[in-house]
Amino acid sequence: MDLQKAFNTNRETWNKKVAVHAASDFYFLEEFKKGKSSLNHYELEALGDVTGKNLLHLQCHFGQDTLSWSRMGAKCTGVDISEEAIRLAGNLNDELEQDAHFVCCNVLDTSAHISEKFDIVFTSYGTIGWLPDLQPWARMIAERLKPGGIFYIVEFHPIAWMFDYTVAPPEMKYAYHLKEAIYEEYEGSYTENGKDKITSKEYGWNHSLSDVVGSLLRAGLTIESFNEYDGSPYDVFPDLVKNEAGLFELKDNMYPLLFEVMAKKV
Q: Domain Methyltransferase type spans what residues (predicted)?
């Protein structure tokens, strides 16, 4: 297929989403500006004290997590394919008087735009599904890590992406090891408060857990830890229930909603 067409389509959709997302309750932008962190306990617990560390945030959207790490003392660089997202991220950085740096590019082209080596490379929640092949992604991560550096991903579980959520109830439609692109066109976005409507046109790819772990291993990284979790910090799938910890789960806990991987460059 024409991957550049797919990337361009996705970029155009994400450019349209930025203003809608920034105005939504989901991203609580005004509270964020007043000091509220956008980070969740999974990534905070995994990465701990980031003071003085260089951190590269892949697919950063409009930079809230990047700037949250910056507020915690990290020297941060964020990368995203959306020009509108990077523009807003830069404006927020200036408004909040942080020193983060933002680069607009396809995440797979990161090494063509950034030569710095990092202590931490970070990505989270809804990122790898926009990539057709994880091997160049993993090679780029290895290129950008310092020796001894850490890569951390917390991401929605691939089983969750086997469902078609454009119908109600969701229908299990896509194979776990599906290699072909999934194209969806629908009204709305996951953050909307019932006001502005956009048409989302998206190409996505499913990646199994073996795809994720295998690509990192083939890139020369060492897996330090791997976990799966029932609870998601985001209520983004139908009919989830909030547990005692304030996380969202399936009513029957039939499969996990998240996984995380920590890998190290030796």
A: 56-151
> Residue written as tokens 């910090």?
233
**What gap in Å lies between CA 102 and CA 94, rounded to an integer?**
11
Helix (H, G, I), strand (E, B) or coil at 250: coil
Sequence-separated (6 or more) residues with CB below 8 Å from residue 42: 154, 229, 233, 258, 260
250 is in which domain, residue-wise? 3-157+208-264
Q: Which residues contact 237 (CB under 8 A, 6 or more apart)?
A: 160, 165, 170, 248, 250, 257
Per-residue pLDDT 10s for the chain (266 aa) are: 899 999 999 999 999 999 999 999 999 999 999 999 999 999 999 999 999 999 999 999 999 999 999 999 999 999 999 999 999 999 999 999 999 999 999 999 999 999 999 999 999 999 999 999 999 999 999 999 999 999 999 999 999 999 999 899 999 999 999 999 999 998 878 775 545 678 899 999 999 999 999 999 999 999 999 999 999 999 999 999 999 999 999 999 999 999 999 999 99
Q: Helix, strand, or coil here: 30?
A: helix
Residue 87 belongs to domain with CATH number: 3.40.50.150
Q: Which helix (H) or strand (E) holds 203?
A: strand 199-204
Angle between helix 134-144 and helix 209-218 axes, rounded to 10 deg:
40
